[in-house]
């Protein structure tokens, strides 16, 4: 439902120009702007990967498991919604190159990173009931950091730095929790997620430094979207393997 409503809202927003004028937001991601409603077709349509990943997460969340998972069905559902929203929100920027589209794109990134970090930190400190307030705090922090007028080498601006930092915090925290007494989790999914994200980041950098054909439909940034969608799904699969283990 979230994917359908968000996608419908995006189509209407593009059609009626609700997101504002083209100000060149996202033009640094190689693909040349076309005439018509969708400015960057490859970078726009590749965001369907996030919608598919979100739907896959929702499908797995609804399946019965042999033993209760640490991640509840409601938490998995929230994550499915957050991942699904990434697609239309990122597409909003690449389709319109508008200021509001850019804001939606960054907000969706903060939502995913804040969830991953909050979910990891609250489990690490044994405060799972704090997931929602920690998630909100991290989300607000991302928005605040993004307002700093500072250029960051390699990743451009502070909003991207906040996004990357939260993902690193989440991954490092998950790694530190691995193997601790009382829980069992299949880290192979996590390793696959990290490898996929690392590949995506490498392509993201390369597409802005030489590997660029503005008029091609084969865009490095589109590959970044698709690989990140796969990584988001793999991360969830790791979370869903976590089980409480009784000693003795």
Task: Explain this structure.
With 248 residues, this protein is mostly helical. The protein is built from nine helices and four strands; from the N terminus they run ααααααββαβααβ. A hairpin with a 3-residue loop joins strand 1 and strand 2. The longest helix is centred in the middle third of the chain and has 26 residues. It is globular and about 60 Å long. The N and C termini lie far apart (44 Å).
Order of helices and strands: HHHHHHEEHEHHE
Strands of the largest sheet, in order across it? Answer: 1-2
Quaternary structure state of the chains depicted: single chain
Helix vs. strand class: mainly alpha
Mean pLDDT: 91
Radius of gyration: 18 Å
Distance between the termini: 44 Å
Shape annotation: globular
**Major β-sheet profile:** 2 strands, antiparallel
Low-confidence stretches: none
Number of E-state strands: 4
Portion in helices: 55-70%
Instruction: Give the DSSP E fraction (strand runs of 2 or more residues).
Output: under 5%
Q: What is the number of helical segments per DSSP (H or I, 4+ residues)? A: 9
Characteristics:
248 residues; mainly alpha; 4 strands
